[in-house]
Amino acid sequence: MWPRLVGKLQLFLAVSVAFVHVNAFDCKNVVFGKEGPILDLSHIFANGPLNVTLEEDTPPSTTITTITLDLCKPLELIPWIDPLDQCSENTNVCKIVKNRRGTSERVEQIITAGKSVSGDLQAKSWVEHSRPNNKLGINIQGTTWANLFQSTALNIECSSKNVQSGKLDYVGQDKGTLSLTLSIPGECTNYVSKRFREKHGFFSSLFWVIITVVGLYLGIGVWYNYTHYGSNGWDLLPHRDFWREVPYMAQDAFRHIRRTINEPLSGQGTGRAGYEPV
Length: 278
Known about the structure:
With about 280 residues, this protein is of the alpha+beta class. It contains 4 helices and 12 strands. The protein is elongated. One of its GO terms (biological process) is protein transport.
């Protein structure tokens, strides 16, 4: 019987670990605060990453900055480009600065402004409650470049006009923080994930409370019946007698704890090997 119980306990722990792992960043379920929405942004990147290119005249040359972003998976290396001229593997936000003079180009900077570790994007979403619409954003961690830690501050704007799909815009650069805006068409409610109401609904919370209580009830009851009565099979399930004896069990436990604490303080025991005088 014990091997079965141990096996079920291992299964329960495995499910618990998997449940905790759900908290990792998932572009299909981007959680914005405790009371904010949970958006599904996967279709924004269904056709690949988004990018924005900036050109600045820096006579006698032109400086070209290209920023590429994918929240759902790391960027793929381009086969026909030298790997040394691209961001490394496990990069989700890549910033490349080139200098062009005439027909020749030279790569000046390659910055990883957002990365994944073990397949998980190192990002944290946030919500700022304001009127008429809440402000949504995602902070993404990158790597260190030129002794300065790099990151990306991504603002998300909904109901943007003239946006057919996702649109990426450059906002600015403040030391190691790259600021971008991701514009998505329609209202944010169009992107609410299926998990939103399941996660934040009252009945969902009540359901998990009930599951927890029932789990404790069965676990304690099975342990009690096995250790005290040697029960097996269906007899392991707790019955009324168990709950009738709970107050006495609690009283005995409290009495034992109190005696354990008081005896070292008094410097002497009862001399009756744990028995109390009647």
